[in-house]
From TrEMBL:
Belongs to the DNAJC25 family. Pfam families: DnaJ (PF00226). It is found in: Membrane. InterPro entries: DnaJ_domain, DnaJ_domain_CS, DNAJC25-like, J_dom_sf. GO terms for cellular component: endoplasmic reticulum membrane. Keywords: Chaperone, Membrane, Signal, Transmembrane, Transmembrane helix. Gene3D superfamilies: DnaJ domain. The keyword Ion transport does not apply. It comes from Hermetia illucens (Black soldier fly). This is J domain-containing protein. CDD domains: DnaJ.
Length: 334
């Protein structure tokens, strides 16, 4: 009997709210937004705006005196502003009318309401365009920074600097050995020499890998534009590889062997391009494109590295320190 009475109380309390299509925490809460502004569903936007202005002026907190009156006015003013925000927007008004007409769709009302409140105000397409553009600019700018640092480095290394000076010796002599009015000062001669050396390094030195001269083709926007072409090219290459080497069992060429070596070493194309040609020839002579040969070679390299570290005095000192003072050990110093 007691359970029946409890259920009856709940039903009598909740049913009027559900029937009216009003839910706590959504839109105007248990109040009807139209009633708050004193308008109807058929009212135009101008009528809704006019009703809002009149009520906002009437219940503005600054126009009321006394703490109690001011508090009542603030609550009323907030309710009026909320109702106006909901009814002035066509999409929000449509969702609100749907709630009034379909009170049984309880969860759908919460979804519609909070989806609109949480959803970003800016068009997602604009966000994507701006994001990709920023990434592309940063990518291109950082590429030029890496290239500039590589050029400056090679210009300071004696080996490459002397080679560049040897190639451009005639031009350097012509610039710095002028006579008469056109004769350059020592500072100007040094500046001209540096410019010529840099120019020779840029033109003659083939810098590869991550420090290579950046190309507009490498930025994200161009890569996205070329994505269909890239995918198609890869599919054609994969089909040819499968047909030639997996089905017809043709022998690998030098290019294919280098690709397999790079794949075994898990290096990117930029990283592998930075490897010296002599080293690549050594890899080919060792037949590192064969997986079993590469595995044995890699194990040998790791063993040699461990042996070299074990014999290194600094590494021995580090191991002693970690043994005595490393994690998990408590000493008087702690």
């Amino acid at each position: 009997m007691a359970n029946f009475q409890l259920c009856l109380v709940v039903i009598l309390t909740v049913l009027p709210i559900i029937c009216n299509g009003l839910l706590e925490g959504l839109y105007c809460g248990k109040e009807n937004c139209y009633d708050v502004l004193g308008v109807t569903r058929d009212s135009s936007k101008q009528e809704i705006s006019r009703a809002y202005r009149v009520l906002a002026k009437k219940f503005h907190p600054d126009l009321h005196r006394g703490e109690e009156a001011k508090k009542i006015a603030e609550a009323k003013f907030k309710a009026i502003a909320t109702a106006y925000e909901i009814l002035r927007d066509d999409e929000s008004k449509t969702d609100y009318d749907y709630m009034l007409d379909n009170p049984e769709a309880y969860y759908a009302h919460y979804y519609r309401y909070y989806r609109r409140r949480v959803a970003p105000k800016v068009d997602v397409r604009i966000v994507l365009i701006v994001t990709i553009s920023i990434i592309s600019i940063i990518q291109y700018y950082s590429g030029w920074q890496r290239y500039e640092s590589a050029i400056k480095y090679f210009a300071t290394v004696p080996k490459y600097r002397n080679q560049a000076m040897g190639m451009a010796q005639d031009e350097i002599n012509e610039k710095i050995n002028r006579k008469g009015k056109n004769r350059l000062s020592k500072a100007e001669q040094k500046e001209e020499t540096e410019k010529i050396i840099r120019k020779v390094i840029e033109e003659k030195m083939d810098i590869k890998g991550a420090y290579a001269k950046p190309s507009i083709r490498d930025i994200l926007w161009i890569q996205l534009a070329l994505l269909p072409y890239t995918i198609g090219k890869y599919l054609i290459w994969y089909a040819q590889w499968t047909w030639r080497f997996n089905i017809l069992k043709q022998p690998y060429g030098e290019e294919e062997k280098l690709y397999l070596i790079r794949r075994n070493m898990k290096m990117s194309q930029h990283q592998f391009d930075a490897v010296e040609d002599d080293k690549k020839l050594e890899y080919l002579e060792l037949e590192l494109w064969k997986w079993d040969v590469f595995t044995a070679w890699k194990q040998e390299q790791e063993d040699e590295m461990k042996k070299a570290l074990a014999e290194n005095p600094r590494y021995k000192q580090y191991r002693r320190y970690m043994k005595n003072h490393g994690p998990g050990r408590l000493t008087f110093e702690d």
